[in-house]
Amino acid sequence: MASMLMNSVRNCSLKSPRAVQFAARSLSTAVPLQAQAKSKKTLSKTGVKNIVLVDGVRTPFLQSGTTYADLMPHDLARTALQGLLNRTGIPKDAVDYIIYGTVIQEVKTSNVAREAALGAGFSDRIPAHTVTMACISSNQAMTTAVGMIAAGQCDAVVAGGVEFMSDVPIRHSRKMRKTMLSLNKAKTLGARLALLGSIRPAHLAPELPAVAEFSTEETMGHSADRLAAAFGVSRREQDEYALRSHSLAKRAQDEGLLSDVVGFKVPGKDIVSKDNGIRPSSMEQMAKLKPAFVKPHGTVTAANSSYLTDGASAVLIMSEEKALALGYKPKAYLRDFVYVSQDPKDQLLLGPSYATPKVLERSGLKLADIDVFEFHEAFAGQILSNLKAMDSDWFAKTYMGRTSKVGSPPLDKFNLWGGSLSLGHPFGATGCRLVTTVAHRLKKEGGQYGLVAACAAGGQGHAMVIEAYPQ
């Protein structure tokens, strides 16, 4: 498919898509001032329970191997939960259920949701479970919460996500594992000595984890490089977009817009209060970096890719009735959502392109109705490829079975407070950050509808429509 995409896309009307013409507009895309709320219809439906986001928090997102290096995943998740308790003031026994998303599990705390909840002081009578769906794990945690509330099983659910890349499980080789398991079962000294004598130097080689697809054995960065080539996304376009992300994140951080971040007193160290991966550079400096995956002619580099990140997030989701009864002023309504999946080899990172038109149709909205867009930025090339795919009638007809394109989100509404490229991407925690950011931006900018979209390993994706709560 990659070669077909490359030839066909370059021949269609994507050579100069409006959404990626950075030179034609200011790179800064200034955050709008407080605007008048738009008088659009509400997405409330008769007979359907309104479900709201009360609030959301996250730990600072830090590059792996830095200040969090000596902690464990449940430490970060516990801190996010404690931050949510402090932010909302909700009684610890008023929550009905807790759900957490994660990708690379720590074997000692495989149900990290439960361990973090107990550590944060929640009642031991509150059930908790952990889900995994690659980079949309906390998205799945949130929508599971929505489903439980919609079904009448719960009134208040905490959802969140955590990822800890500073200490990932590294296994012995399979032969070594089999030997060790057999050694544990051996009943005689002779049997034990025989097993020990069977160990060879090759058995001691560890199995290192890799961010790669099991089905294709290809790293995600390699897939991103091929996708960028297929859609004709140049190295310069990718570097420009990455610079945009870091510049907007730095401004948002300096202006105090990243209010979902809660401080974390790391034992033996200072209080951490800011993301530490936001580093605006220059096009000249970025151009010096060599390709990270497809060498020597690839276009994906460390500068235009998201980095390995430690962090956790948490949100409080309730039925509107329950939230108002407890005296809360919700931040937003959580409306329609969809999950999609497609070919994990050539369309691994195109989840937003497939999910966006579907969720808009479910909501009865058009792209022009959306005031705030927050898309997960795995790679600059991935984002720009999705924008081109969404703006392509050919792609819509050929691969999506649609009669026409959905259109490309305008950059003056798109990821205006930075994104995963700059803020960081703890795999299991990013979804909650996206949703909370949409809620905050809608309030700041006076918009009514926001749209979250993300890709995930396995060729999957997610999108959700969020509606501002009346001011």
UniProtKB/TrEMBL annotation:
It is an enzyme of class 2 (transferase). It catalyses: butanoyl-CoA + acetyl-CoA = 3-oxohexanoyl-CoA + CoA; decanoyl-CoA + acetyl-CoA = 3-oxododecanoyl-CoA + CoA; an acyl-CoA + acetyl-CoA = a 3-oxoacyl-CoA + CoA; tetradecanoyl-CoA + acetyl-CoA = 3-oxohexadecanoyl-CoA + CoA. One of its GO terms (biological process) is fatty acid beta-oxidation. It comes from the Eukaryota. Pfam families: Thiolase_C (PF02803), Thiolase_N (PF00108). Keywords: Acetylation, Acyltransferase, Endoplasmic reticulum, Fatty acid metabolism, Lipid metabolism, Membrane, Mitochondrion, Mitochondrion inner membrane, Mitochondrion outer membrane, Transferase, Transit peptide. Heterotetramer of 2 alpha/HADHA and 2 beta/HADHB subunits; forms the mitochondrial trifunctional enzyme. Also purified as higher order heterooligomers including a 4 alpha/HADHA and 4 beta/HADHB heterooligomer which physiological significance remains unclear. The mitochondrial trifunctional enzyme interacts with MTLN. Interacts with RSAD2/viperin. This is Trifunctional enzyme subunit beta, mitochondrial. The gene is HADHB.
